[in-house]
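STRUCTURE:
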């Protein structure tokens, strides 16, 4: 399926495009909708659609500016613009950016279906003709995405890990047959994490922790993607744990795990360990892959997850129990490290 994103500030137009056009029958699926050009640009960057259908007149950022911004960023989407009968000057300007077509309002489904059929035929013919030449290029792009994911795992930033994993999954999904996708992707993810582990330790048994049965499950695609992200987040946590077995950074980490409920500052911990704060901060960052204060938040959020799973405490009480006097800060940090809100996490559990 080719992915299409719709952008229009009129809800009725979006609804008409969604309901009146036979996207699936022509090999397309709607991956997102936006009501202004700014939101559309962020969705294009995040979702990487094959086709974008956009109105030319929208608030914040109009359709032409959206197309120009995407061209500057070298985003690969093909554009079709929606316009009224009095907007031909916009259409003329849009043609400078190789806009594929324009559809007049009110929408004509026969015209739209014709365009979609042409695009699908053209893209599939191009894909078959270019397959031998693109094979090496695709492998290179996959390796770039894998490097991006391994760097994210090293950073221990869960939001960054999720984003990098999603980009890798989407790239590979477009490159190989559907029937081979999960097995192929599972093996590559496991090999990537295993390689990172071997660089950290010579303990052969440590590899087994990464071989999740969920990687080979028949779950819904969105759920399976979450399994992959969870595996990568677990890899980050395990790598950090291995790095903290010895040395001053390990002593500081142990101090945090014992005293996370208290207000913690790098200077106070350095004083306890008789180490210069600046040196400890640099050593901790180099050893763990995250700053001292981020590690404090990370440990607090891990403990909060346990409390949310195992107790009936209210979220505000959980926040206080793990060292947060400000519930908003607790919610922000929980979202940062788990990619979900405390309330959603509690309900899901």
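SEQUENCE:
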């Amino acid at each position: 399926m080719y992915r299409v994103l719709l952008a229009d500030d009129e809800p009725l137009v979006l609804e008409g495009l969604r309901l009146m056009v036979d996207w699936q029958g022509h090999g397309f699926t709607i991956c997102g909708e936006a009501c202004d050009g700014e939101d559309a640009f962020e969705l294009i960057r995040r979702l990487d659609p094959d086709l974008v259908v956009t109105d030319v007149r929208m608030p914040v950022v109009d359709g032409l500016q959206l197309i120009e911004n995407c061209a500057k960023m070298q985003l690969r989407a093909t554009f079709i613009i929606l316009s009224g009968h009095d907007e031909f000057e916009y259409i003329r300007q849009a043609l400078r950016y190789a806009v594929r077509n324009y559809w007049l309002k009110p929408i004509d489904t026969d015209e739209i279906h014709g365009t979609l059929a042409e695009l699908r035929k053209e893209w599939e013919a191009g894909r078959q003709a270019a397959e031998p030449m693109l094979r090496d290029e695709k492998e290179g792009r996959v390796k770039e995405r894998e490097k991006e994911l391994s760097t994210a795992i090293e950073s221990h930033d869960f939001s960054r890990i999720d984003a990098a994993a999603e980009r890798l999954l989407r790239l590979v999904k477009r490159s190989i047959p559907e029937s081979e996708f999960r097995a192929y992707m599972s093996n590559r993810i496991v090999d990537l994490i295993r390689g990172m582990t071997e660089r950290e330790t010579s303990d052969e048994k440590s590899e087994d922790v990464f071989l999740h049965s969920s990687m080979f499950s028949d779950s819904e695609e969105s759920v399976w993607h979450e399994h992959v992200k969870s595996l990568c987040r677990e890899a980050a946590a395990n790598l950090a744990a291995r790095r903290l077995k010895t040395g001053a950074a390990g002593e500081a980490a142990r101090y945090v795990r014992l005293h996370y409920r208290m207000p913690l500052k790098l200077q106070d911990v350095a004083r306890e360990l008789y180490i210069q704060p600046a040196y400890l901060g640099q050593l901790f960052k180099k050893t763990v892959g995250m700053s001292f204060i981020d590690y404090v938040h990370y440990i607090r959020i891990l403990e909060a997850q346990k409390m949310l799973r195992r107790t009936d405490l209210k979220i505000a009480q959980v926040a206080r129990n793990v060292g947060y006097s400000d519930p908003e800060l607790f919610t922000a940090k929980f979202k940062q490290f788990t990619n979900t809100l405390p309330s959603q996490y509690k309900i899901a559990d």
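REMARK: The chain has three domains: 2-107, 134-242, 244-348.
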